[in-house]
Amino acid sequence: MSKEEVVKIMGSPDSARGAIKNRYDQTIEVWEYLLYKTTEDRAENRTTAYWMFFCDDVLVQWGEAGDWNREADRIYEMRFR
User: Fold this and answer.
1) For residue 57, is it within any domain?
2) Distances (CA, A) of 71 to 53, 65, 75, 81
3) pLDDT of 50-69, one tens digit each?
């Protein structure tokens, strides 16, 4: 799914968590959507952050923030001067 298709379905993201180019010259970008979860018990109602992980403008993974701890070592940072 492309970034444009995600925007059509979800709307604009609440924030862009980061964007880098990895050592394979791929553009990696993470968008954040804040979704309000409701339950029968109003004390449980809360906002949950969902992250959309894009590689070269294609959605490759999504899930709740914090679900990606095992993926952190797969994202490589390239610093530009």
Assistant:
1) yes
2) 11, 12, 7, 26
3) 999 999 999 999 988 877 66
Q: Which tokens in the block code for residue 62?
A: 């999504």
Q: Looking at this protein, which amino acid is placed at residue 57?
A: D
Question: pTM here?
Answer: 0.71
Residue 24, domain CATH: 3.30.1450
42 in any annotated domain: yes
Among residues 17, 1, 19, 20, the alpha carbon closest in space to that of 9 is found at: 1
Q: Contact 57/2 with Cβ under 8 angstroms?
A: yes
Q: How far is residue 70's CA from residue 59's CA, in Å, rounded to a whole number? A: 18
Within-domain flag for 43 = yes
Residue 72 Cα distances to 48, 51, 53, 58, 69, angstroms: 20, 13, 12, 19, 6
